[in-house]
Design goal:
mainly beta, Porin, 16-stranded antiparallel β-barrel, 4 helices, 16 strands, globular
Length: 398
């Protein structure tokens, strides 16, 4: 039985069937992970000249000290069948990276109109990725976590309404997933920001052909967030040239647009597994990267309970345009102001150009638990350096 089919059978991460008396069913999952990074502090590489860039001391959240919290988490899900197609689901998750503070990840009401259409209202998962349905359930896939570059959006759930439509399309099982909603919370953008994502729409289409599946997704939203430390930069431009560049520099106006496109394909016949995924994020009207492109290829082979695997991935970013200050570049008196503005839009911590290789082994030592170990070699081309990361984890469902 392949991992995806085994997941739904073993851990019940989807809605569990309860009794007509609204019996509550509890399920859960956990990952206890550890890791340590080797950061290549290349001699002579001095980034201090750029005030908007800091030399990274971490790789995927790990530094050169053994850490047991970054990818560790514990979640509990409660679901209840209320009868006549109505159900309720809530999921609470605590992450080691968030000091084990428990947060409500899901809280929604579902209603099955018929065998093919289900409506969902409340806090729910956005269908961005191949593994969106069980994004936090490490037991569901061969890695400890999915590739960070491709799975880089700072949020994965929204408050809104959705619909899941399933039907047979020839020999394929077709699933259409639509969600619309709004998010008003702190998000990790260039740093933690008070953000508002409105008019959010997302759609994904998945076709399952027995051992093979295809997936395509699209999402868009209006993006607003507060960047108070850049307000003096806007004021300096106003003083220097009499131009208000708040719309171009700040992200607090209503004209900032963001979109997401994703494609994926998987093959899993119980012995071999192969996965590839492509994601593209575009943002307009902010100092965030204008375009973020990531893709990866992963291959694994099962030998009984042991699955060795290897993944190659690439992450590329393009800076937002600073063409709005081009008319002033010949003015020597504005050189410092221009340098500062260019630095805001060309932050080396954000405008990345990376490639990486991850080799790992998954050992299913128990019917509901797996031990995983991975080694990643990461080429941060924007820093001209090569770093590495060793991670290990126990993932379980219950």
């Amino acid at each position: 039985m392949n991992t995806r089919k085994k997941l739904f059978f073993a851990c019940g991460i989807g809605l569990a069937a309860a009794s007509a008396q609204a019996e509550v069913t509890f399920n859960g999952f956990a990952t206890l992970a550890g890791g340590v990074a080797s950061i290549d502090d290349e001699p002579g590489l001095d980034l201090s000249a750029d005030p908007f860039s800091s030399q990274p001391s971490r790789l995927f959240g790990y530094d050169d000290q053994l850490d047991y919290e970054n990818n560790s988490l514990l979640a509990l899900q409660a679901s209840s069948d209320l009868g006549d197609g109505l159900s309720a689901t809530a999921q609470v998750i605590a992450r080691g990276s968030d000091q084990w503070n428990a947060k409500l990840a899901w809280a929604y009401i579902g209603y099955e109109i018929n065998d093919n259409v289900k409506l969902i209202a409340g806090r729910q998962r956005m269908p961005f990725y191949v593994f969106s349905d069980y994004l936090d359930v490490s037991y569901a896939y061969h890695w400890i976590t999915p590739p960070e570059g491709a799975y880089s959006l700072p949020f994965d759930s929204t408050n809104g309404i959705g619909a899941i439509i399933t039907h047979q399309l020839g020999s394929a099982d077709s699933t259409l997933h639509f969600v619309t909603g709004r998010i008003k919370e702190d998000l990790q953008l260039d740093r933690p920001r008070d953000a508002d994502l409105s008019d959010m729409y997302s759609a994904a289409w998945t076709l399952n052909f027995s051992d093979f599946s295809l997936r395509a997704g699209y999402a868009s939203a209006n993006l607003q967030y507060s960047v108070p430390e850049l307000e003096p930069l806007v004021a300096n431009w106003q003083t220097a040239v009499g131009q208000d560049f708040s719309e171009q520099i700040l992200a607090s106006d209503e004209d900032n647009k963001g979109s997401f496109v994703g494609f994926g394909a998987t093959y899993d016949n119980g012995n071999w597994l192969a996965i590839t995924e492509y994601t593209e994020i575009t943002v307009e009207g902010t100092n965030l990267p204008a375009k973020q492109t990531s893709y990866y290829f992963s291959l694994g082979k099962r030998f009984g309970d042991v699955t060795p695997h290897i993944t190659y991935g690439v992450d590329e970013n393009e800076a937002s345009s600073t063409s709005f200050i081009d008319p002033y570049r010949s003015n020597a008196g504005l050189a410092e102001l221009i340098f500062t503005t260019d630095g805001v839009f060309n932050n080396k911590d954000l405008i990345v150009d990376n490639d990486y290789v991850t080799a790992g082994i998954r050992w299913d030592f128990h019917s509901s638990a797996a031990f995983k170990v991975e080694y990643t070699v990461h080429n941060a081309n924007h820093y001209e350096r090569t770093d590495s990361l060793l991670r290990f984890a126990i993932s379980t469902v219950f």
